Amino acid sequence: MSFKIFLSKFLKYGTLLTSLGFIITVSLQIFARFFLSDVPPWTEEASRILFIYAIAFSSGLAYRANYFVFLEAFYAGFSNNLKKIVNLISPLLSLVLFAFCGFYTLFMIEMGLNEHSPTLHVIMAIPFLSILILSLSITYFSFLALLKKIKFWKS
After folding, report:
1. Which residues contact 33 (CB under 8 A, 6 or more apart)?
2. Cα–Cα dist 58/79, whole Å
3. Over the stretch 32-87, which tens digit does the pLDDT of each residue have?
4. Contacts of 32 (CB under 8 A, 6+ apart)
5. 3-state DSSP call for residue 110?
6. Dist CA 130 CA 50 (whole Å)
7. Structural domain tally of the chain?
């Protein structure tokens, strides 16, 4: 199994599980507000963390499938040469941006080892790890997109 296939499956299942967990915790919170005398205090924090992870897992998949917002109105007015340049620079800038983000996330994760969340009492490195997942997956898929654009540029 190639790394690309493994990463895609990891991101898909991560998205599925965290989205399902998010739906369950929010449903529990809604149920508790209407039918129980006390709302579990951990549901709000758990749903927030699960939502952040769902976004982190799905962002790499969205980049790979080119599902992000694209400003077609501006792009349509460009000349063919400018379109080629924009198509080449776009994954390069994404690669650089998210590589820097991933690098500096390591320091944030290290700081999070000494902090705990208020209600769940998990170390904050766990929620901060979601930024690393997002950054590394987008960096990897933007690198693959850049290689594809360079091959296209040469032909």
Report:
1. 39
2. 33
3. 999 988 889 999 999 999 999 999 999 999 999 988 777 777 778 888 888 888 88
4. 38, 39, 40, 43
5. helix
6. 10
7. 1
DSSP string, 27-60: HHHHHHHHHSSS--THHHHHHHHHHHHHHHHHHH
- Overall pTM > 0.85: yes
Residue 107: exposed, middle, or buried by beta-carbon count in 10 A (0-12, 13-18, 19+)? exposed
Digit-coded pLDDT (tens) for 114-135? 999 999 999 999 999 999 999 9
Per the structure, the complete domain to which residue 120 belongs is given by 3-154
Task: Show contacts of 5-11: CB within 8 Å, 24+ apart.
Answer: 7/60, 7/137, 7/140, 8/61, 8/64, 11/57, 11/58, 11/60, 11/61, 11/137
Euclidean distance between CA atoms 125 and 132, whole angstroms: 10
pLDDT at 140 over 90: yes
Question: Which residue, among 35, 29, 67, has the nearest Cα to 48 in the 3D structure?
Answer: 29
Q: What is the pLDDT of residue 35?
A: 93
